Amino acid sequence: EVQLVESGGGLVQPGRSLRLSCAASGFTFDDYAMHWVRQAPGKGLEWVSVITWNSVSIDYADSVKGRFTISRDNAKNSLYLQMNSLRAEDTALYYCAKDPSGYDSNYFDYWGQGTLVTVSS
Amino acid sequence: QSVLTQPPSVSGAPGQRVTISCTGSSSNIGAGYDVHWYQQLPGTAPKLLIYGNTNRPSGVPDRFSGSKSGTSASLAIAGLQAEDEADYFCQSYDSSLSGCVFGTGTKVTVL
């Protein structure tokens, strides 16, 4: 059974940093691209970032480009999102999502339960 | 911020058929990019419902079906059941934004 478990969320002041993690199990992690998708409270979904299986190709939404960094450790079956210069509008539930292929298929076949990031002073 | 437009809500009685539209543009759906649909039950993570415009993942009932034409796509739910009450999101890729885009979301209510 595919499992994705996010962690690392919390309350952080504007301008500070936070690092999210996603622990994957139930599939061969290093065969698949991975994404981060976020959902502001009571709002819709917003794609954040993608990383291919081998970390060669990485992409970001314009709203986070230059501030967020996605990475993965295939030996640890883990995905990460380093978030710097956080803003109030980054407040959201952050989901880790699996891509159905090793490269970016542009959709998500499994999702974690999310970790909440709240940016507030 | 959503690039794809959906009706905020649709409703139907048990057993009825409802459809949810997803309207895009020439840089996403109209450009030939696939449309995918997700179901988000209250308080839970989204779940893939339809991929590649018309395909159902294993375990998704055949009451759910997808279609695509031009710059729009639709999700149909036949034989509506109480357990179908959820938010539904369409999703595609946008070449102008160089990234995945989602619909505004539709809340389905079973009367």
List the helices and strands and how they pair.
The complex is a heterodimer of chains A (121) and B (111).
Chain A: E1 3-7, E2 10-12, E3 18-25, E4 34-39, E5 45-51, E6 58-60, E7 68-73, E8 78-83, E9 92-98, E10 110-111, E11 115-119
Parallel strand pairs in A: 2-11
Antiparallel strand pairs in A: 1-3, 3-8, 4-5, 4-9, 5-6, 7-8, 9-10, 9-11
Chain B: E1 9-12, E2 18-23, E3 36-40, E4 47-50, E5 64-69, E6 72-77, E7 86-94, E8 99-102, E9 106-110
Parallel strand pairs in B: 1-9
Antiparallel strand pairs in B: 2-6, 3-4, 3-7, 5-6, 7-8, 7-9
Structure, briefly:
By secondary structure, chain A is mainly β.
Helix count from the secondary structure assignment of chain A = 0
Q: Low-confidence runs of chain B (pLDDT<50, min 5 residues)?
A: none
Average pLDDT over all residues of chain A: 97
Termini separation of chain B (Å)?
Answer: 30 Å
* β-sheet strand percentage of chain B: 35-45%
Number of strands of chain A: 11
Which structural category do the helix and sheet elements of chain B fall into? mainly beta
> Could you estimate the helical fraction of the residues of chain B in percent?
under 10%
Structural class of chain A: mainly beta
Question: What is the string of SSEs of chain A from the N terminus onward?
Answer: EEEEEEEEEEE
- Shape by Cα distribution of chain B: globular
